[in-house]
Amino acid sequence: MFITIEGIEGGGKTTQVGLLAAALQARKLAVRITREPGGTRLGEEIRGLLLHSATRVGRLAELFLILADRAEHVEGLIRPALRAGDIVLCDRFSDSTLAYQAYGRELPLDAVRTVESVARQGLRPDLTFVLDCPVDLGLARTRRRRGSAAADRFEAQDAAFHERVRRGFLALAGEDPQRIVVIDGSRPAEEVHRAVLAASGERLGISWR
After folding, report:
1. Within 10 Å of residue 170's Cβ, how many Cβ atoms?
2. Which of 101, 94, 92, 116 lies closest to 164 in space, CA to CA?
3. Distance, CA of 93 to CA of 13 (rounded, Å)
4. What is the CATH number of the domain that holds 44?
5. Is residue 177 assigned to a domain?
6. pTM for this structure?
7. Backbone angles phi, psi at 130, to 5 degrees
């Protein structure tokens, strides 16, 4: 089972990945937690370049760096973990590429879909959660979380960019409602966790009681 958690900055993805992993592990299930960008040695190097480097990266170069990360991630970590019978929980995957690079950066959606499908090599998540919240709330959360640290490349974008990304996630959810579950990420983390458990339990055949 391959589960991804998506959403704008400050939506609570990383928190919910950890909470869901703990709930699954409490049921003695094998869980592999990973993230994008990142997840592999190459991916973590790309993550540093994408998020924190002062080097200018254009829209297309950014897209192809993300796709290089994905290709390595799928081949080197995700598929092997799935073959081993693990549940893979990933903080961002293909929907983030469409939302950020096509909607946010305004690259042609069809072109981004085409090259992204090559990078993921036919792999699709079985279940995706989009944690949706207003942009101003999400950005306020990221500011509180990072404190005095500098914003990363995506956090530093203006509100209009993040509004486009949010609209992108919701549009993608509307296209694929069987896979993508939208959850109100503005609620307290424990309430969001209960909603994630309900949907994942139904898909996995688990009663959490």
Report:
1. 16
2. 101
3. 12
4. 3.40.50.300
5. yes
6. 0.94
7. -105, 115
Q: Is residue 209 part of a domain?
A: no
Domain membership of residue 107 as a residue range? 2-204
Would 166 be classed as within a structural domain? Answer: yes
Containing 201, the helix (H) or strand (E) segment is helix 189-204
Please give the chain's pLDDT, 209 residues, in tens. Answer: 999 999 999 999 999 999 999 999 999 999 999 999 999 999 999 999 998 877 889 999 999 999 999 999 999 999 999 999 999 999 999 999 999 999 999 999 999 999 999 999 999 999 999 999 999 999 999 888 877 677 788 888 999 999 999 999 999 999 999 999 999 999 999 999 999 999 999 888 888 87
Q: Across the beta sheet with 87-91, what order do the strands follow? A: 31-35, 87-91, 2-7, 127-132, 180-184
Instruction: Check if the beta carbon of residue 94 is closer than 8 Å to that of residue 120.
Output: yes
Provide the β-strand partners of residue 181.
129
Mapped onto helix, strand or coil, the DSSP state of residue 124 is coil
Helices 135-146 and 159-175: crossing angle in degrees, nearest 10, is 120
Q: Where are the alpha helices (DSSP H) in 79-188?
A: 79-83, 94-97, 109-120, 135-146, 159-175
Distance CA 101, CA 116 (A): 11
Q: What amino acid is encoded at 206 in this protein? A: I
Cβ contact 37:69 at 8 Å: yes
Q: Are 125 and 36 in contact (CB under 8 A)?
A: no
The count of domains in the chain is: 1
| Token representation of residue 135 | 């942009």
